[in-house]
Amino acid sequence: MRVEAYGTVDELNSTLGFARSICTNKEIHDWTETIQRTLFRVGSALATPPESKKSPPSVLTEDVDMLTNLVHQIEATEGILSDWSLPGAHTESAAFEVARTVCRRAERNAVRLANSGVEFKPEILSYLNRLSDVIWLFGRLIEVKAGVDARLRSGDTAGPKWSRAWK
C-alpha cells in the first residue's frame, strides 16, 4: 500500500510535468512547478517508514494554505466556471484534467494507507485534496483565458456558486 501511495504521487508529479510543459500561461506554469517541488516532499513523506532513522520531509499547513489561497485567487477571476465542466475542450486544460484524476487517485491511495494504520502527517491528505481543486481550477483558468466554453450543462452561468476552499 505504501508503494502504491507514493508511486501514485510520483505519477501525479510526472503528469503535472507534462501539463506544465505544454502550458502557455506563465502563472499556471510557475504555480505548477512550485506544486511539483512540494510533491517530492509528499512522496518522500509517504515513502518513509515510521521505523526509519531519517525523519520524513514535512508537508506543512503553509503548503495547504498556499493552495487555499490559489483557490480563492483563481475563483475571483472574471468568468471562471464553478460548475461541472466537460474535459477536453482545450489541449492544455485537458492535460490538467488528466493530472487532476491522478491526484484524486493519489488521495484515495493515501486514505487507504492511513486507514490501514500507517501514520503520516494529516496535512498530506489535506494537501492532496486541495491540490485536486487547484488543478481543476487551472483547467478552468486556461479555458477562460482561451475563450473556450467547457460548460457541461448548457445555460450554466459562470461565476462562483460555492467555493472549493472551505475557509
Automatic annotation (TrEMBL):
Pfam families: Cob_adeno_trans (PF01923). Keywords: ATP-binding, Cobalamin biosynthesis, Nucleotide-binding, Transferase. Pathway: Cofactor biosynthesis; adenosylcobalamin biosynthesis; adenosylcobalamin from cob(II)yrinate a,c-diamide: step 2/7. Residues 2-141 form the Cobalamin adenosyltransferase-like domain. GO terms for biological process: cobalamin biosynthetic process. It catalyses: 2 cob(II)alamin + reduced [electron-transfer flavoprotein] + 2 ATP = 2 adenosylcob(III)alamin + 2 triphosphate + oxidized [electron-transfer flavoprotein] + 3 H(+); 2 cob(II)yrinate a,c diamide + reduced [electron-transfer flavoprotein] + 2 ATP = 2 adenosylcob(III)yrinate a,c-diamide + 2 triphosphate + oxidized [electron-transfer flavoprotein] + 3 H(+). SUPFAM superfamilies: Cobalamin adenosyltransferase-like. Its EC number is 2.5.1.17. It comes from the Bacteria. One of its GO terms (molecular function) is corrinoid adenosyltransferase activity. It is an enzyme of class 2 (transferase). Belongs to the Cob(I)alamin adenosyltransferase family. This is Corrinoid adenosyltransferase. It comes from Tunturiibacter lichenicola.
